[in-house]
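Slide 14.
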Amino acid sequence: MINGSGAECFGRMTSISVEKQRKIMLQSPNGKKTFGYDVKFEDILAENLRGFVKIVSEKNRIKDISITNEFSIESFWTKDLPIKLLKPLSLKVFYEEGRYIVEEDVFNIYAANQDFQKACLDFENHICHLYEEFVREDIKKLGSGGVSLRKLLQSYIGVNNVDL
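Slide 15: predicted structure.
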């Protein structure tokens, strides 16, 4: 995702090299990423090794870093079309006992996997399932709880993304 003058990347820092070519390895929702960094970032990076960070980079060099376990999604894919959300959906991620746990509070969804990318894909599959079962479904087939969930989903998805 692009934000401001640099690219933003969220992930878990899995390794750091303090040699002549300073680099970190980040496990992101889109796979492994490598970033170079200046010595001014070395202490914060070393203190947060194996932790979650959000990095702003330019040409794969860190320009800014924040320590956080939260990120957001702005779109997802269903079986046949992309869905752009009207507002970002905030997610929290944890790493416990060798598993990445991705969760969010609006729809009470969570996904877990040993691979961060797969945990994020599992999460996206849960969102897609809700979309298919409650938004694309004929409203007459839904109970009152289903209609409420449909309205909540549509507040994030919008009606233009929905087959009418």
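Speaker note: The chain has two domains: 2-67, 70-157.
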